[in-house]
Structure formats: structure tokens, C-alpha cells
Amino acid sequence: MTQLLYAGCGALLLGGVVAFVFFARGGDEGAGRAPRRSVRLSRAAQEQRRLQIVLAVVGGVLGWLLSGYVVSLLIVPLLVFGLPWFLRATMTQNQGIDRLEALAEWTQRLSDVLLLGLGVEQALVSSLRTAPAAIEADVSELVGRIQSRMNPEEALRLFGDRLGDATADKVLATLLLRISDRGPGLARALADTADSVREEVRQRRVIEADRARHRATIRWLVLVMVGASGVIALNPSYAAPYATPLGQVVLAVVVLALVAVVAWMASMATHRPVPRFLEADRRSRVRAAGPTAAQEEES
Questions:
Q1: If you write DSSP's letter for every residue of 128-139 in order, what string do you get?
Q2: Domain that residue 181 falls in
Q3: Residue 60 resides in a domain
Q4: Alpha carbons 165 and 142: distance in angstroms, whole number
Q5: Which residues does 90 contact at the CB level (< 8 Å), separation at least 6?
Q6: Does 90 fall in a domain?
Q7: What is the mean pLDDT of residues 97-122?
Q8: Alpha-carbon dihedral of residues 50, 54, 57, 59, nearest 10 degrees?
């Protein structure tokens, strides 16, 4: 009876911790930040997160009751939440490179259209017909905003927010300068920018191919470690020293150390994007409406 009471208390504690992690990672950004880029989980991601919570709580409690190890309340949630994240983090990341390659192709086609004498807005609208599939939805949204009489500069900045890449900002900066001053030479500038983006795509593919080998090595190493740990846990004579209270503490420390090492290895194999230079700095944001103090004094 006492063991069942402990199990219930442990389940409630574990459920509270898991729920806190769920809401901390899955909620929108705080009110103090700009709401322009709020983080919302899709319906499929929400269903997956709920399933993970159930598996973590039930698996942790069952592991404790069946094995007698309190540390199961820590190990099972780490496996349920951490293993899928680790496998995703160590997969090949080619989606961003494919979008950049499509952007270079779109930029080159836009340059060719501008040589025919069209204006920037007309060229952007006509570029939808030949937009590459990887960025077709983004270009379609850009064209829709332009056709709805939105300020072209604002539409291009929103387009850059959808792409979310520093290299894409090079193309958008060229278009923004052309819209602001209406000077000549845009087609040539876009062609040069397209060549620059293609060169960066080539370099990124080489780097990604090199990283893919290291990611595969790390992935197989962790999977072997998890499999070996499962085999060891099934051997009562080998796992007996960890059944004592001191052994539980040691096992928890070892598990946390392994998790820290694995997370460090995964972070080394993850591409860190270069910060965008067209993104507005929220620290320098001023009030959008209303007169300033100096204007009030002059009036």
C-alpha cells in the first residue's frame, strides 16, 4: 500500500514536471517580446506531445513499480522526449539549402524579366509563374500582398521573414534599394547576387556532406549506448549495486552526465544560422504612433 502511495505521488510529481516542460517549450513567446514570430505547434505536433506525456508518465511509473528503481521516473521521460529530438537533430539538413538554391534560380529569372523593361512590382508578380517549387508558396504570398496594394517594401520584408535566412537578405536588400531610389542596374545586380547565392549553396552542400558523416557516427553511437544499457538493466546481478539508495543517486548522476554529453555532441553537429541583417532590432524600436517629445516641444 505504501509503495502504491509513493507511486501515485511520484506520478503526480512527474506529471507536473512534464507539463511544465510542455508548456514552456510549446507555448507562445512571452508578452514582453514582439508577437510577430510567435511559436505555435501544429495539430500533429500537439498530438505527438500529448502522446509523449502519457508515455513518459505511464512508462516512468511502471518502470519504478516493476524494477524498484526510483530513477526510472527520470530515465523514461528522458528517453521519450530526448531520443526523438536527438534523432531529428542528427538528421541531414538539406531543406534550407534547397530553398536557397531555389531562391538563386528565382533571382536569376527575375533579373531576366527586368531586362525586358518591366518595373519591379510587375516583375515580382510575373515571377510567380516560373517560381521554383521550394519557394513557390512564399513567392505566392509575396505576390498576393503586392496585388492587394500593400507597400512593396513591407511585402518584401515579410517575404524575408518567411525565408528567414541571411543569404536571402542579400537579394531582398538589392530589391529594397531599387524600390527606394528607382535607379538603374537592378538586373545586373540581381544576376551578380544570384551567382553569389549559387556559390554559397555549393559551399553549404560540401559542408553538409561532411557534417552528415559525423551525425551518422553520433547517432549510431547513442543508439548502441541505449541498447547496451537496456541489456544491462535486464541483468539483475549486474544491476544489483544500483538498487541501493546510493546506487540510485550514482545512476541518476551518470544518466544526467550522458545526457549532457549527447546534447553537446548533437549541438556540435547542428548548423547555427547566421543572424539576419534585415531583421528589425527590437532594442531600437520606437513608438510607431504619436509625436515625439521634441516635436511636442516645438509645437
A1: GGG--GGGHHHH
A2: 95-204
A3: no
A4: 16
A5: 215, 216, 218, 219, 266, 269
A6: no
A7: 87
A8: -130
